């Protein structure tokens, strides 16, 4: 399969990309690195990417991270700003990409544990992930030409504990292997409309 | 308790309001009817409402309905438009209202079944409801002064079947009594961070 990985150079991408490359043809994409440059917060940039990269069987997005926020001063304006990349960016990949992927291709998006388990300071991130889950359920019954869609919902990964662990006391980190396995499952198994909770 | 009901004149509100009025002091609010006029898609209008109506113990929102959409032509612009009332409007009620409700007061929002069970043509509504669920989980651990928050997630109600039933073949309608009971539960029981699925 020909797989486009957006965010191939990030914490998860660095481990996932070489693993998938053992069996598949990989095209890496990212804002500041990768064979193709894309800013997923821009519909135009997403369109240009799909026009440039042809005959894709799978599109995996592990690009955007969730925001931190202060609930007592949180506003609609800040939420809209925070939604751009990880929520609208990933939804736009699907809404735009549905015209470009090969028949029976698949999308794999990335949400996060805060959809289900709240922590202080990540309300925006929680809404993004909860919204993505319901989007994926809907998209799975709407997508044309046998296209599949799934979303991986990771907890903090072990490779991020040193940098972010102090923000989420008590949150159990998951192994990179477990997480990479989940992304691989969305590629190799004929599943759709699944939320793969890795925590 | 002094309860502000936004959308008191809607399908659900018409049944809920007299039921709650048996035991509580009710203030009705709505865009085109009610003792107080409010457009929940406007932050300014929400602020004016809370400044006008003092000493509220509970704020129930059953105001906004979900959109219908066509997945193959759906865009970020349309989603943003659809999110205004039911998603951002209800979140703004909480983000702004957290300063105004009495100590130990409570918010009750309204989502919908499509967060969990997809139907064609309601992707925007699904994202709104899924996002609201995760927002309520987060808000429940963030709100100050003992404030509580819950969300009622109804399926289609029996009183709407004649108008909307044809859009959702096979979707089981819920009785108004069951639904009214769920809203009452959020007022009368000391629960928070709950998603009350009524379907």
Automatic annotation (TrEMBL), chains A, B:
It comes from the Bacteria. GO terms for molecular function: oxidoreductase activity. CDD domains: Lin1944_like_SDR_c. Gene3D superfamilies: NAD(P)-binding Rossmann-like Domain (3.40.50.720). Keywords: Oxidoreductase. Belongs to the short-chain dehydrogenases/reductases (SDR) family. This is Short chain dehydrogenase.
């Amino acid at each position: 399969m020909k797989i486009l990985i957006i965010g191939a150079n990030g914490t998860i991408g660095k481990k996932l990309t070489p693993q998938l490359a053992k069996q598949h043809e990989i095209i890496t994409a990212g804002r500041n690195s990768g064979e193709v440059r894309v800013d997923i917060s821009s519909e135009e940039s997403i369109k240009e990417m799909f026009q440039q990269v042809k005959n894709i069987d799978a599109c995996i997005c592990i690009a955007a991270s969730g925001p931190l926020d202060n609930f007592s001063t949180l506003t609609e304006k800040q939420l809209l700003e925070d939604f751009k990349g990880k929520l609208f960016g990933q939804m736009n990949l699907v809404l735009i990409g549905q015209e470009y992927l090969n028949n029976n291709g698949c999308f794999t998006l990335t949400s996060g544990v805060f959809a289900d388990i709240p922590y202080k300071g990540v309300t925006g991130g929680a809404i993004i992930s909860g919204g993505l889950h319901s989007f994926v359920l809907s998209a799975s019954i709407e997508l044309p030409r046998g296209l599949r869609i799934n979303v991986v919902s990771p907890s903090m990964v072990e490779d991020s504990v040193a940098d972010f662990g102090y923000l989420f006391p008590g949150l159990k980190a998951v192994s990179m292997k477990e997480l990479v396995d989940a992304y691989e499952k969305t590629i190799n198994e004929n599943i759709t409309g699944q939320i793969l909770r890795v925590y």
